[in-house]
């Protein structure tokens, strides 16, 4: 049995040595795989990730800058809109004032037009009255002249009456001229 124990020990030692070697190679293989994976990751994958991160960071910075530009534009547009609103209010006030002035002028023009029409009507009425008066005077004057002609002709058939009448007329005209 001694031999068998020696053998057994030897086999056991060998088994332990083989197991140790197997574990060592497994560990070595594992480290080698991990190392190769880390090397491949660093060499091939990491630059792509780094480039993507740099690209994403640049895009983020660009978007932030664009946001600032758009915010400035929005502020500028709001200022322009406010200025336009102020100008609109100013023009609206001026237009309202002009409307009031125009309405007042229309009222004045209408009153003036009515006054002219009234004056025209009165003037035409006066002209018609004057024409009627002149026509009436003309008729009356013709009748008076005819009547006077007849009566004066009879009255002045006497010589003395004509001279006395002329002296009265000359005397009357001299008094009116003074």
Topology readout:
Layout lengths: L1 H154 L3 H19 L1
Structure description:
With 178 residues, this protein is mainly α. The chain has one domain (2-126). Helices cover 97% and strands 0% of the residues. It is built from two helices and no strands. It is rod-shaped. It starts with a helix and ends with a helix.
Q: Characterize the main sheet.
A: none
* First-residue to last-residue Cα separation: 196 Å
**Total number of domains:** 1
Q: Enumerate the spans where pLDDT stays under 50 for 5 or more consecutive residues.
A: none
Note the overall shape.
Answer: rod-shaped
Cα gyration radius (Å): 68 Å
Characteristic key phrases:
2 helices, mainly alpha, 178 residues
Describe, in short, the structure shown.
This protein has 178 residues and is mostly helical. The chain has helices at 2-155, 159-177.
